[in-house]
């Protein structure tokens, strides 16, 4: 009896409720379809509970002939049934008089006390948040804003109490321990709106409450106006649907769920490059793939979308097809190459018109092949350094190259590194090595990096027969004719003076 008296006081103090006030107008992403809550005439909201029936509160008025808008489509009320509670059942027809046959509707809930502490989503049409209300510079609530029930809003809350047939939530301030992400409160023109929960078993939204009243009119508070440091939270009230659920079903009948056709199984395309097993498969299928290994080659690994491959190192393996994927079989030669490079000298002179490109070295390559192949081999030789320090000239034998000194005053002297790459006839197996030599200025007989009087003195000694035992003739034979004579001195002098010289004959 004490509970009944308390409820009379609460409802007597309450104002008709008709919209959802939000802190920042952010609505919950996980919410019922908009078509579950409709606009009832010009004074409230309603909830679709059957393809042809809606529920609304009695106190918001209306009746047969009232216009109801759902998802922007207008319908007319053709029949009204009033319960012994503040709940009205209304049958809708289209403007053409045919049954509404609405696609979306909420299931009814038979729960009451077990709803305490449950998260809900509340929806309705009408007034929303207006100006922030403050006292002593501290916010304590919001005024209501809006002139008609024309805007649909959704909010969230937690059921704090159940008093017999009445569900209660309060309006928590942002940051409060019990505040939800999109904390909402009822406001003007929300009467007849719904409070919903998600049923994990059925996978559908259930209406647990019908908005009927709020604690205050014109504003929603989450703190005391006279002392905003004190939490005084306005409450919103809804009629528990459970008290009318049997009565509703007795009038509307039950809706036999239409079995949805089994969806076509999802498929994915598997592309196997360099192997077999590709095709279109049902997602989740396990498929065998086999690499096509060319003659003379061996399987190395699978590459591409290999997260679904059981063993990327096995030419025969399985794939679980979870999504479109491309997998490539990588094969390589079943043998290996090893190459060594040898130069017949450690240095060469630059060339000039007088030397006719005869200063150079011979690069000889030796290839070890672990397979049966002995060639032919494709050879490339490249040089490092700045400019064309040397000129690279292949011979009839791909494993023998001439390395000629670069043109004097055009190519820089100094060390140059030669990089040698050798590829077998299949083009799959290759090896690489390198070697280096020094390019001298033409006439730098003492190899000190310049051509000067010391070089002249050295060649004079040789010309006068005072070279000494064991001297390197190639150092002084600047014209590369096999001997040391005044012509070599002329080339040195011209080189020292920055000029060029040509020598007649061979």
Account of the 3D structure:
With 506 residues, this protein is mostly beta strands. It has four domains: 237 residues, Beta Barrel (Thrombin, subunit H); 67 residues; 104 residues, Immunoglobulin-like (Sandwich), CATH 2.60.40; 44 residues, no CATH class. The strands form eight sheets. Strands 1, 9, 10, 13, 14, 15, 17, 18 and 20 form a nine-stranded mixed beta sheet that branches. Strands 3-4-5-8-7-6 form a six-stranded antiparallel β-barrel. Strands 23-21-27-25 form a four-stranded mixed beta sheet, with no helix packed on it. Strand 34 and strand 35 form a beta hairpin. Helix 3 runs antiparallel to helix 5. The longest helix is centred in the first third of the chain and has 12 residues. The termini are far apart. The N terminus and C terminus are likely disordered.
């Amino acid at each position: 009896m004490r509970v009944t008296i308390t409820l009379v006081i609460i409802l007597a103090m309450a104002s008709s409720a008709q919209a959802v006030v939000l802190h920042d107008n952010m609505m919950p992403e996980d919410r019922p379809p908009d078509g579950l809550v409709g606009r009832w005439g010009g004074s409230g909201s309603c909830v679709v509970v059957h393809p042809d029936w809606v529920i609304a509160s009695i106190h918001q008025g209306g009746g047969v002939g009232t216009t109801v808008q759902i998802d922007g489509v207008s319908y007319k009320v053709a029949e009204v049934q009033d319960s012994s509670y503040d709940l009205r059942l209304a049958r809708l027809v289209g403007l053409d008089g045919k049954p509404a046959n609405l696609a979306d509707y909420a299931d009814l809930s038979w729960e009451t006390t077990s709803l305490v502490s449950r998260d809900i989503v509340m929806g309705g049409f009408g007034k929303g948040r207006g100006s922030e209300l403050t006292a002593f510079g501290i916010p304590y609530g919001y005024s209501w804003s809006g002139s008609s029930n024309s805007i649909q809003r959704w909010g969230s809350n937690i059921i704090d109490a159940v008093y017999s047939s009445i569900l209660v939530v309060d309006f928590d301030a942002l940051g409060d321990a019990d505040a939800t992400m999109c904390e909402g409160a009822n406001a003007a023109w929300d009467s007849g709106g719904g409070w919903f929960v998600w049923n994990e078993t059925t996978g559908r939204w259930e209406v647990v409450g019908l908005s009927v009243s709020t604690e205050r009119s014109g504003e929603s508070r989450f703190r005391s106006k006279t002392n905003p440091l004190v939490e005084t939270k306005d409450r919103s009230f809804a009629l528990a649907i459970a008290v009318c659920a049997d009565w509703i079903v007795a009038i509307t009948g039950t809706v036999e769920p239409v079995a949805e056709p089994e969806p076509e199984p999802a498929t994915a395309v598997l592309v196997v490059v360099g192997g077999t097993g590709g095709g279109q498969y049902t997602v989740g299928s396990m498929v065998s793939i086999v690499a096509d290994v060319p003659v003379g080659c061996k399987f190395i690994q699978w590459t591409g979308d290999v997260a679904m491959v059981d063993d990327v190192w096995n030419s025969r393996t399985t794939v679980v097809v979870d999504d479109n994927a491309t997998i490539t079989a990588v094969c390589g030669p079943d043998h290996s190459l090893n190459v060594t490079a040898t130069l017949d000298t450690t240095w060469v002179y630059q060339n000039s018109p007088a030397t006719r490109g005869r200063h150079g070295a011979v690069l000889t390559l030796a290839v070890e092949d672990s397979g049966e192949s002995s060639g032919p081999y494709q050879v490339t030789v490249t040089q490092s350094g700045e400019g064309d320090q040397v000129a690279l000239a292949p011979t009839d034998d791909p494993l023998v190259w001439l390395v000629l000194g670069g043109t004097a005053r055009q190519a820089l002297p100094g060390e140059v590194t030669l990089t040698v790459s050798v590829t077998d006839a299949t083009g799959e197996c290759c090896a690489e090595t390198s070697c280096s030599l020094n390019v001298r200025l033409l006439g730098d007989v003492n190899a000190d990096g310049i051509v000067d009087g010391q070089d002249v003195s050295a060649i004079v000694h040789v010309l006068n027969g005072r070279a000494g035992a064991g001297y390197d003739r190639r150092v002084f034979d600047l014209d590369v004719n096999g001997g040391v004579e005044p012509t070599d001195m002329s080339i040195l002098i011209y080189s020292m003076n920055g000029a060029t010289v040509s020598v007649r004959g061979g």
